[in-house]
Design goal:
With 297 residues, the chain is an alpha/beta fold. It folds into two domains: 3-121 and 256-289, Rossmann fold (3-Layer(aba) Sandwich); 125-254, Rossmann fold. Helix content is 30%, strand content 21%. The protein has nine helices and eleven strands. The strands form two sheets. A six-stranded mixed β-sheet has the order 2-1-3-6-5-4. A five-stranded mixed β-sheet has the order 8-7-9-11-10, with helices on both faces. Helix 5 (159-173) links the parallel strand 7 and strand 8 (180-185). Helix 1 packs across helix 8 (258-268) and helix 8 (258-268) packs antiparallel against helix 9. The radius of gyration is 19 Å and the shape is globular.
Length: 297
């Protein structure tokens, strides 16, 4: 039986770079040959959630949401637009960070769909955050002498938004790799504006748990932290703020290793991946020697 992977992302009519991570991770996975087909689909771009299954020939489809948290898009929008018969969030049996897989039928195409939890709540995302810290510091052993701030949007409209950030901060803290690990937010306490008050180490790596770089990661967060008064003038990596060196990485979703989290979701759902994990990790965990891009003048 043929299989397909569908990566479902938000996209944007205003920010052409919003869809870039979905296309790049799809390309990485496509190169492994693990699936007969790999498709990208978007809420705000084409191909749309509503139409994507009609572009897939495979009888068995693994759908992985390229979203950070469980909530409106993963629990309502995507299943509705894919016309997944019998879907209800309870099928994931999740506490807000533990969504797994629901096997459903697409009403208009008859395909079997393995609907997976979002990449942002998978345990493997913790590895991507650490890899992001390696990449931005150009130091594969980064940890000792560094604090880590994992940054999320935070919103009172979706309590799971903060849960995902805190979940990974807790997991990374438990490894004792970094001197300190804090979960910080844009729209709720503790706020990223006060990062130097919450993290005491001289060197602080800041990793935003966002899928793509856009208004929040490229403009709001750098200005809120005091890296620059005007994002258009740029800033250094690291930039010194209140006596601390801030290593700002930009969105975690642009880290190549995120492709492996997509595969982890499909693997957990029963996909036969034939060594694809090893291929992705071999290709992407060597990227720490690439220069950081976010905010460079």
């Amino acid at each position: 039986m043929s299989t397909a992977l569908v990566i479902a992302a938000h996209g944007s009519h205003k920010n052409p770079g919003s869809s870039t991570p979905a296309f790049e991770h799809a390309d990485r996975i496509r190169e492994t040959g693990a699936f007969d087909e790999v498709r990208e689909t978007f809420w705000k771009e084409e191909p749309s959630f509503r139409e994507v299954l009609r572009t897939v020939d495979a009888d068995e489809v693994y759908v992985v949401p390229l979203f950070i948290s469980e909530g409106y898009f993963t629990e309502e929008v995507i299943p509705r637009e894919l016309r997944l018969e019998g879907w209800k969030p309870e099928l994931w049996d999740s506490d807000g960070t533990s969504a797994d897989t629901a096997v459903l039928t697409a009403a208009d195409t008859g395909q079997t769909v393995h609907y997976c939890g979002p990449v942002g709540t998978h345990d493997a995302m913790s590895d991507v955050i650490i890899q992001r810290a390696k990449s931005v510091t150009d130091d594969p052993s980064v940890g000792e002498g560094f604090g880590l701030a994992v940054v999320g949007h935070g919103t009172r409209r979706n309590e799971n938004s903060a849960k995902a950030i805190e979940y990974h901060a807790d997991r990374i803290r438990a490894t004792d790799r970094f001197d300190e690990v804090q979960a910080l937010f844009m729209d709720e306490d503790p706020e990223i504006d006060d990062v130097t008050e919450y993290v005491e180490t001289e060197n602080i790596v800041v990793v935003p748990l966002f899928i793509s770089d856009g208004f929040h990661t490229q403009e709001d967060i750098p200005e809120d932290m005091g890296l620059t008064d005007d994002y258009r003038t740029g800033y250094d990596v690291p930039e010194t703020v209140d006596g601390h060196d801030i290593w700002y990485s930009g969105a975690v979703g642009t880290e190549p290793l995120l492709a492996d989290v997509v595969l982890e979701r499909a693997d957990d759902a029963g996909a036969e991946l034939d060594g694809a994990h090893a291929q992705i990790r071999e290709r992407t965990e060597t990227t720490a020697d690439e220069p950081p891009t976010a905010g460079l003048r």
